[in-house]
Amino acid sequence: MANTGVVVALVLAAAAFGGNWLWSRQTRKEQIERLVSGARAPDLLKEHSNVFNKKEIVQVTPNVYSAIGFAIANSIMIVGDDGIIIVDVTESVAAGREILAAFRNITSKPVKAIIYTHNHADHTYGARGFIEKDQPTPEIWAHRSILSELQTFFYSSPIGYQRAMRQFGVLIPNHINAGIGMKLRWTEEGQQPGLIFPTKMFVGIERDIIVAGVKMKLVHIPGETPDQIGVWLPDEKVFLCADDVYRAFPNLYAIRGTTSRSLLDWSSSLDKIIDLEPHYLVPSHTRPLEGADAITSLLTSYRDAIQFVHDQTVRFMNKGLLPDEIAAKVRLPEHLATHPYLIELYGTVEWSVKGVFNTYMGWFSGDPVNLSPLTPDELANRYVELGGGVDRCVTAAQEALDKGDHRWALTLASHVIRVDEQNTDARRIASICMMALGSQQVSANGRNYFFTSALEVLGELNTKINGDRRHGFIRIAPMATLFSLLRVRFMPETCPNTNTTVLFEFTDSNTFISLTVRNSIVLIGDRPLTSYQIKVKTTETVWREITISKMAALTSYVTGEVEVVGGLVNFRNVMSCFEKD
Fold first, then answer.
1. Angstrom distance (rounded) from CA 284 to CA 180
2. pLDDT in tens, 382-435
3. CA-to-CA distance for 569 and 558, rounded, in angstroms?
4. 68 Cβ contact list (under 8 Å, min separation 6)
5. pLDDT-wise least confident of 330-339, 365-374, 551-560
6. d(CA 120, CA 114)
7. 113 forms bridges with which residues in the sheet?
8. Distance separating alpha carbons of residues 342 and 302, to the nearest angstrom
9. How far from 435 is each of 33, 374, 395, CA to CA, in Å?
10. Which of 85, 170, 490, 543 could cross-link 78 (Cys pair, CB 3.0–4.6 Å)?
11. β-strands 139-143, 200-202: how paired?
12. Given a cut of 90, is residue 21 above it in pLDDT?
């Protein structure tokens, strides 16, 4: 029998979308909001909000404070002799400013350093909120590998942004929480990314530093990301563990889209923390913990759960089972599954299993059916044809929906939408199914993704990256990074025979960037060349504005601020080989 939340969702869905969609009674927006608000969340997920639903500064020790509830991530202040150190800065400049104002009720000492525990936006994009007027920019510490991780993020930012909007449920009404915080502060009016690139980086396993008289050890603890570091304060026995631990099952694979995370690295990192025997544990999400025995017990259970998922996945993988089959078999033992820090409120065992399989075996499941499969559009057409046409498939989807078989109804409706994109009945069925499936999710990520996707299917949400945020990336990215993005925007179908090198000289930074197109690929260099076909001389500021305008303003700039040697027409022809949107 369906649970109460699903029943409520389906009843409201029938009311909101049945017949002629009841246009005469309510506006469509009101119907959508009613549908979403009626889809009840599991009690565990609602209760989980109590962990972080209040903005507060929690004192851990006399000189360590954690800001909880201001954003999806925490920001931690360490008070030194003549300044403060900020560890993680949240995703929002606005949140950063709020937090700093709250910290200023404790101390007026200047910000001497910022430490990024890893590259994720919710730990780095609020940095400018901690920069105060008339104060020097603090040094910013991170692991050296953060640069390659940021580069990877920038490469996939359009699709990554869209899927993050779905996972975190930023745009849906009746948002419950985001699993590791209340809500991602990502769409506030006028918000621009506040990332400042690191100025101090280290390589290897650890680095001892002293800032404002505070002795710290930066410890490489890869987990959610390969670049992740923790901060060990030996005098206070405090360990800042970044995202290696939070009060939910770990996100061993993120449905917003990431590379498969190394479970063995993650469990080994937890072993490092256990060996330090911290008396205080301060995560970058959820609340601090106190007591060496309690912390050791928690860390042991957490790392054992991660290893269990790894080991059992590999066990069944070696028996020849496919990813979906393994995901249906692997379940945490009861004493771990019921641990308050391992409830699947964020990551899930099911998704984690598939991530482990991908780590070892890649995209190919091993089933020859998947070796050279039909494309989704081809498969949809075959399904619909086999099912007797669009109308018959819609009828079958409705019949499955009436029986509460939401996964099958969604499958059928999704195939119809691929064949007949404007089919309102199929979209109605798909949205109801996604709402129903979302209602069953304990994981905030799963709930948010289903609900957001349902509203997208109905045309009520647009999760694509907006122009303001894109422009913000362009204004903060290093020039080498900005140019490297052109590699994944090149259109070989438009310029199959282009073979040209363009040398850019930026006079305000005294730097050079070379862009070479050959064999339908793009190469980017950061040194001056003696051999090139076109040379462009300008400033970084002007080029960023040209990039934001998608080259439309190039002609107006050429008269004074951009000098092109080798022919403006030739230069424009080369740049026309790159996608503008």
1. 9
2. 999 999 999 999 999 999 999 999 999 999 999 999 999 999 999 999 999 999
3. 12
4. 52, 54, 55, 56, 57, 58, 74, 286, 287
5. 551-560
6. 15
7. 85, 139
8. 7
9. 12, 28, 19
10. 85
11. parallel
12. no
Residue-level pLDDT at 12:
42
- For the chain, which residues make up each domain, given as ranges? 4-46, 53-243+280-285, 479-575
CA proximity to 233, closest of 197, 270, 192, 276: 276
Which residues make beta-bridge pairs with 518? 521
Scored b (16 or more CB within 10 A) or e, 12-32 reads bbebbbeeeeeeeeeeeeebb
**CATH class belonging to 53-243+280-285:** alpha beta
Confidence grade of residue 33 (pLDDT, cut at 50, 70, 90): low
Two tokens, residue 263: 């479970």
Q: Are 305 and 263 in contact (CB under 8 A)?
A: no
Count of beta carbons in the 10 Å neighbourhood of residue 48: 25
Q: pTM here? A: 0.90
Q: In this model, does residue 276 exceed pLDDT 80?
A: yes
pLDDT top residue among 36 and 401: 401
- Chain-centre distance for alpha carbon 94: 19
How many alpha carbons lie under 13 Å from residue 259 in its C-beta half-sphere? 12
Interatomic CA distance for residues 326 and 351, integer angstroms: 11
Provide mean pLDDT across the span 306-335. Answer: 97
